[in-house]
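Supplementary notes (optional reading)

For those who missed the lab, this is the record we used. Protein: non-specific serine/threonine protein kinase. Length: 490 residues.
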Amino acid sequence: MATIREESDYDSSRSSLTAPGSRRSWISDIGSSSSVSVRSFGGGWDTPASSCRHKPHKANQAEWEAIRRIRAAAGRIGLEHFRLVRRLGSGDLGNVYLCQLREPWSTGCLYAMKVVDKDALAFRKKLRRAEVEREILRTLDHPFLPTLYADFEAAHYACLVMEFCPGGDLHVARQRQPGRRFSISSARFYVAETVLALEYLHMMGVVYRDLKPENVLVRGDGHIMLSDFDLSLKCDVVPRLLRHNSHPHNGSAAGRADAAKPSCVPPIQPVLSCLFKGVHKCQAKEEAAPSRPGGDGETSSEPAADTTNPEVVVEPVSARSKSFVGTHEYLAPEVISGQGHGSAVDWWTLGVFMYEMIYGRTPFKGESNDKTLANIIKQPLAFPRVAAAASGREWDEHLRAQDLMSQLLAKNPKKRLGGCTGSAEVKRHQFFKGVNWALVRSVRPPEVPKPPPPVAPAAAAQKKKVMMMSRKERQEPYNPVRPDERFEYF
């Protein structure tokens, strides 16, 4: 699927990752060098304490322990501590490699290392995008989002060491399913975990903007992990406490409007280091939201009218960007119109993502990219005919899935499920009835990938020559994608 960009959040330029006239291979340039720079993208470097901070939900991992030992012994970590095994994939900003630690630190742990050429990105005016991705990864600490173990620089390359997902992505996993589509129960599992990941990102002030099966990876335990944050929009956001609607949520626009009315309860003070006081402040182009009593930056002196079942709304609703970024088939109508978009685009892409998981295709795909964009703006949502369900229960589940997709794919972002109060109303939908959101990690996934084959030690790898790149492959200039897959608007 073609991916488009018109980057008003960050500047854009040429699409080639390697600067013109340069055939430098990042491995051939620095692979044999023992001098590795460890400054950050912007020229500074975090203190060991901050860069080595363990993520609470993965603090006991062997991967973390191995990284900690290197930092304790060497005082820093760099490219010379890793052995690259093979290339896993490539994106618009760089290559991703499977790697492991060299002896004597090797513990058998596998990592994914994203490598970007800073000189090439600076030439294309995309260095800021790589910096924002790194900043986002540094703040994440969630079971369904990437863990950043280390980031450093080597010559003119910037490296991000993250966890390795051996299960591939959901696009490939869908191809293996009967009819190339997931069952309703499998789709519910993956969509539920994706909702939790988006909820956390929005709480952290991040609008993801690039949800699609190719960006949802499968960990070794079968649970998901969102990846690729180079299109994300980073904002400041303050959680707001709202009264819970005492009536059952019926999914109507009126019901969602009632749920969005703020109570007299003062805003919750942020408890996370990434949450800031004050009004939402987007780093990109932003349209200021009108101030309301009891809103951000104001504290009402009136007592709370009703705090029964309050909920925290962490949706960065005031974030606004006019960037034309994303994948054609997943673009929200407000992105195409250029009138400005906010966090509601993530709930639109969730609807498209869910539709593709269940039906094997996206809902508005046309004969060409232009036709696809026209369909997104004008064509009403339609569902393909499905064979008669084996039971009434399965049919009811299918109808609930269609109802959720219909509400997520509302063309008006103000009427879209999740567009105003975020994940809270999405999670209350009947499609997720019976889902214990607090214990999703304990549910057995639909598929558990086979363990990856053990990586041979360096000496054995030289003899067997398996899973290692040849010198010719290492020295080939980086070509991010096939010519017919990605392009950019300027």
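If you only remember one thing from this example: The chain has 15 helices and 14 strands.
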